[in-house]
Amino acid sequence: MPSLVPFRALRFDPAVAGALERLVCPPYDVISPEQQRALLERDPHNLVRIELPPAEPGDAGDERYERAAEALLAWQAGSVLAKDPAPSVYPYEQRYRLPDGAERVGRGFFARLRLEPYGAGIRPHERTMGGPKEDRYRLLRATGANLSPILFIHDGERASATLLDALTADAAVAEATDDDGVQHRVWRVAGGDERVAELLRLAGACPLTIADGHHRYETALRYRDECLGVRVDGAESSEQFVLALVFDLSDRPPSVLATHRLVVGGLPGDLLERFADYGALERLGSADVLVEAFPVGVPQPGATPRIGVLTREGAALLRPDPARLEAAVDTALPDAVRALDVSILAALLQAALDIDPAAVEGGGRLRYTKDPKEAVASVASGEAAAAFLLDPTPLASVVAVASAGGVMPQKSTYFHPKPPSGLVISPPGW
Prior knowledge:
Elements: E1 4-5, E2 10-12, H1 14-17, H2 33-42, H3 48-51, H4 63-77, E3 81-83, E4 88-97, E5 103-114, E6 122-123, H5 130-143, E7 150-154, H6 161-167, E8 174-177, E9 183-186, E10 189-190, H7 194-203, E11 208-212, H8 214-230, E12 241-248, E13 255-257, E14 260-263, H9 271-275, E15 279-284, H10 287-292, E16 307-311, E17 314-320, H11 335-338, H12 341-353, H13 357-362, E18 366-369, H14 372-381, E19 386-389, H15 395-403, E20 414-416
Helix pairs in contact: 4-5, 5-8
């Protein structure tokens, strides 16, 4: 089973560095070039300088990663970043609003997780790509630090809720509101507290599913193995752990947003008539009605699968009949994967439009958006031939897929909101 331990986090000292809002940044993979420039200009100590170090003219190798490592050391020497005095666990809360106006609260805790290969204890739910892993490896090799956490889900059946209530009763030690209006709060509780020991025991009593951060987890495994390969004393080292943010599936986990599909390129005939062969098709009065049927971030628990369809011929709601798609479904996939809305849509695209998985992975036929209105605009402008709207994948389905040893189709989940990098940093050493 997973092993979680307290650690001495590096954290920004507001007395030296200033307001935390100016210092944290989004995770590296959601930072656009424009946002990177704005964050670099916002504050000389914004963590983007280390999390996504900018390239400079003349860079030929790992220079930008080396500059990131130098900045990390300089900030510690100047007390911009300070290491907490004792190993601790860091309860965490995020308060935010979904686009429908509903207020949500996510709650978990930061700790170090002992690295182990995927298997009974740590379960993935998606495949990774080589490019991002190489980038993260070079940064990790240069700095030795985990700048942002890997998100994990455990099915604790609310066992940790009472503990986290108690551990967050006092004032937070760090608080920041990000550019999207999400409020982030962090507490610090020393590892000697018996409630911390119980929290870690509960979270480690069942498998952990990676929700977000597969690339960084696999990178950390590679870095650990390389470090262990040169050690001679056999002692336990910090490289054998990774920074984890753990959520209880039953106690305020993060939201999952849907990622809608856009088909580009020519398509044959009246698609709505073609799709009617694969399920119950309800034609809708307009694209606006279709958008209203798919509010952002609002799952449809217990509902039968449905797919919103928009073409130049009109809008419709399709409730697919699995029996009619059976020939296009990969029977080698676990049941938990085949039952996903995104898997059903993939079968529909293959059966009705001859868009097979290879074409999807190649990126030539499908584009993606999290905004239903953007999907509609793409069809109206002719940029896309059709749009397919989906409900968010339930978080329980993510856990079920991982438990079955399966992986989800590309762009099945988008976890929201992202915890910013720089709230807590797991440094090299103890």
